[in-house]
Amino acid sequence: MVPLYKVKVNHRFQCLTHVLIQWLESSSKDSGSIKSSSNSSRNPVSFNRFLLPAVSKVFTGNNEYQQMYITCVGSDALLNEDEIELEAYPPMMLMRIGRRVLNGKKMIVATIHRPPFAILEMSGDDIVGAKGFCYEMLNSMAQKFNFTYSLLPPYDGNWGGLMPNGSFNGMVGMVQRKVVDLALASITITFIRERVIDFTHPFFEEPTAILIPPPKEQDNFLAFLNPFSWQVWLLILLSAVVAGCAMWLLSISNYLLIPQPHERKNKMPYYYYIWGCTFLLTSQSIRLKLEGPAMILNGFWLFMCVIFIYTYTGNLIAFLTVPQMSNVIKSLEELANQKEILWTYRSNSAHETLFANAPAPGTYYKIGKLLKERPDLFVSSDMGGVEAVLRGQTAFIKEKSWLDFAMESDYLSTKKCRLYQVRDDFFGAGYGCVLQQNAVYLRLFNAEVLRMMQNGLFSIWRRKYWPKPNECSSIKRSTTGPRALHLSNFFGHFSLYIIGLGLSFITYLLERIYHSFSLDK
User: Fold this and answer.
1) Is-above-0.85 flag for pTM?
2) In the chain, where are the structural domains located?
3) Residue 273 scores a pLDDT above 90
């Protein structure tokens, strides 16, 4: 037995309680014992008569309960964490054991450059400095639990993907093989990874976004036709023809309900009326002799023309001052259902697992199907994805915070808005710290993550390291809005004028030729 004077008082009570609970749970298989225990608990005398023999049975002889007690109270002298059996300790005792194991320990931490979570300063292949969201969190834990750490980049530059032999590469593989004590970066918590390592509680929830080339203004050569669809234009022209024919028919009728002060003389052919109704659409007046029913129809047609003109004018102003953008993708579903822009994401990442294993016929399946058919589209690095976007006609799928950082870096270096993010996000994933399976300090790290979250430290660190809005990434930025009109906006208008001018001269020449032939005859 362990001498009681070597065991702390609070440990004596916790270990005794823990062992008694284990004994009572094992004794619950005997229903008679449980019944006698419940009946005896009502009487202090009978309870003592039951409890004292139980304690005596637990701590006399060399049985499993005595060994359990020795293991529990012996944690004060236990320094080798590989020898600790987690199931032998109550939860609160594991917290104290974790503190003792971390006290003075030098941790080896696998990490990777991933702003704004991990911003590394490299000297060749060595990490000489680190800052960012994750290192604010790690430094706080190191100071509180009195441990130091050294940083080690992954040998292959990956987070951790499942390989054909069943092991993992990247940082997850390093923790799995116990090359490092933990891995810290923006490592996505996934079920397949958690089979070989342990994640802490998520310290950040982040959606995935899509980076695309910036939308370009559409060529509005025929902007003057845009206010109405082709069906509306066709219906308006047919209405002018119908109105002109109807006026002609009503004008040649001899039946009048309204007496006329003069004799009706109508020798104008029908196409004059059609031409006059068409001219009303251009705010021009017509000089036609209209009487009775034709005047009523002309009044209503004129009213309709006013509506058409002002509706067209209002929409034309909107189409000219609010430019239409091309290649505007608003969601992952729109990206998957079009063929103008291809897409890519990083190989050996959580996104590859997400899309490759997605069931048909959903949107995720369509996204993964393209890269199964075109593996040459995969990128091996995040900057490779940005370069693919800058080359044009390619979208890059990545976590939103990294895309925000990439957009800011590109804007600061070029002073141009060469990148654009799709409005809708998807696939919110949690980031966690990666520990070895059954790490004795897992509970301690989980408690500390929750404490920092509740104290508002995460919000402070996020404001400190996240990119500040600029004219390219600000949510107030808009690709539409009133603007000054340029000459290019009127190419279609002047082209129509030139066409009309040419047709008028051609008509003039034809008339001259016709009259010259008539005079010769």
Assistant:
1) no
2) 4-77, 223-313, 487-520
3) no
